[in-house]
Amino acid sequence: MEKVGKLVVSVLSVVLMCALYWLWLPPLSIAYASGFLFIGLCVIILISNIAMWVSDFGIAGVIAFLGFAILLILWIGGAFFGSSVFNATVKQQQIGEVEKVEYSEMIKQIDTSQIPIVDEALAKKQADKKIGEDIALGSRVYLGNAAIQEVNGEIMYVVPLEHSGYFKWNKNRTIPGYITVSASNPNKVNFITELDGEKINIRYQKSAYFSYDLTRHIRNQGFKNVGLTEYTFEINDSGRPYWVVTTYENKTIFGTEEATGVVVVDAQTGETSWYSVEDTPDWVDIIQPQAFIENQIDNWGKLIHGFGNTIFGNTEMTKKTDLILTVYVEGDCYYFTGMTSVGTDESSVGFINRQKDWYQTLVIHRQSHYH
Fold this sequence. Notes:
By secondary structure, this protein is an alpha+beta fold. It has helices at about 1-25, 35-55, 55-80, 85-95, 120-130, 135-140, 165-170, 215-220, 290-300, 305-310, and strands at about 100, 140-145, 145-150, 155-160, 160-165, 180, 190, 195, 200, 225-235, 240-250, 255-265, 270-275, 320-330, 330-340, 350-355, 360-365.
């Protein structure tokens, strides 16, 4: 009878870990916090099962408890030793070379017709109205995250549609298009349902299930041990829809993320390709997640004289302003933010812009009077 109990426990533990991976889909690498936790849990369950079969449930329970405790300590310790306390130089220099130039040297003329006057909230509101025109469609989908991008010289938001639940997905399986909203004209809204005379059928979504789930599909295409982030719905210059997902690695333990390239997935066929940062197609607008760039700008300004300076000095420290914009100039995509000094002064010292290609020069513009 005891053997039957042990067999049941072993089978249930295997099923549990398979289900956890199926739902969580962490990278199978200890270089990432989620992967470290998952692999650690698998090791603990394996050792506990071996102990259970060799000895008894009591010994297995003790081993499992100690294993969980050690895993938690290592996870917390890894995050601590990967923090700015021990890696200030790595984090401060991650942003790359910063070139200081005069403001007048970097001025470029911007086509005023392409200045974005529509924010994401308004774009989604306009897209929602467009979906509302088709009651049948509106009842089975919801709007995904709108991404601003340049398509054939026009700045627009591209808004994907997502399945509104398992039963809606199971019944329909595909979504018949996407919505575009001009960033300079809120009344220019289009529901794109055809390309070159063929109807659009988007199968691979974040809200899809089983093999059509976007993350699961990417993992199954050979990216099981790779960090994935920033799922962006983009279209190429022909209007064909793709998912662009940033791949990254950690420069310190469980942190200091660095983009290594993008996985590009055809939203209709599922065809998947990986490109390094340098080789990414020109139509792809988002390689560097905004969160990565904000964090790297913060570290560059904050850790200029090491971690101790953030506690005891604030000497020559700068910080970005709250607002960060996406700006397109002559076909190049930039993140743009103001910079201020840290401390009681908090005066503006210039601004930073950053091209989507991390290997371009990052520039901080300085001027005596910032407006």
